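Continued from yesterday's entry.
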Amino acid sequence: MEFRSGCPIASTLDIVGDRWSLVILRSMVMGARSFSDLLAMPEGISTNILSERLKRLEQAGIIKLSEKGSGSKRGAYRLTRSGAELLPVLKSLATWGERNLPDRWTIPARFKAMDPDDPSLLG
């Protein structure tokens, strides 16, 4: 991947700074594993955008796709250790939004309690 600069913030945003990547990661933290799970996100992502973002996140080592199994056409998506380390970023964004934006969803207690070392996050 090519980065705009050597700045770690700018380089991270080159990977996850679009309008969908962090939402995909949020859904994966909350248990989405399949393409159809992610396609069903309430934000309404299109199949071509979802495919492209999953490919980008996989190439960056943030998620991985497990082998196909038990009748699924595709495997299951899981966070890598690198992806799980984005959890504090997701939690900070969620907390800021809950505090500063009116009429937002309440952050689930399960999400607030999660830790990057939580084995349920990793693939």
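--- second protein ---
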Amino acid sequence: MAYLLTSDPDYFLAIARNKNGSHRLQKLIGKSDDADNLFFLAIFRRFLHIMTDKYASYVAVRGMQVFDDKKKELMYEHILPHALRLACDKHGHIALNEVITDLDHPFYRDHLLDLVALNALLLSYDAYGNYVVQHVLTLYDLRCTYNIAVSLLGYCVELSFDKCGSYIVEKLLETEESMVLVVEELLECEGGRLMRLARKETGSFVVIKALRVMQEMNRVDLFRGLVQKLMPFRHLLRRPCGNTTIAAIIESGC
């Protein structure tokens, strides 16, 4: 059965792209070594087409979960040079996130995370790539998180004005090393621009989170610096963000 399904690469791709076909293939993968050899070769022949398809991508991800180590390594080797293309694809970014989640090989995991961190600026401005950056930050790999923060130096304020970008900045505020870099950039921002950020819905969440985490981590110097910078505009910052106003936090800090 595996031979018949995989003997024609285009036929295999057509099956994998079908919702029911994809589901059936996923069930067949992992049943026997001989069949897996055929499925592996079929996936490899049409790798990018499969990884960037809504349903076919699940077939490749399933393979990377159950194939033997040698096959997995060959697939990881193939992913690395195409990772950015996958990250910026409508369906490829979902498949890439699945691969990153399941990747338990230290060498390839580090290489893939480093690739995302190095290209974090490009990905953060991409409609799909930003979800890959967000996903990597949820892994709480401190080295990778710090490297992403370094890649985004000078752009955190600008990203905070955007809905997806603000999610990335908020996640950077969840670890001390990257938090400091973000807050220092906020402090370097002109008072008027920081006020506009604090008044924008997406930006207000970033500013509130920055103030809160600095209080929780007892970074009095950074907290007071932001409070002083926002104080002249506190009358403009009374609009609630959830159940909190930035003005209330500022005044409590004083």
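The radius of gyration is 23 Å. The CA atoms of residues 157 and 193 lie 9 Å apart. Will compare against the first tomorrow.
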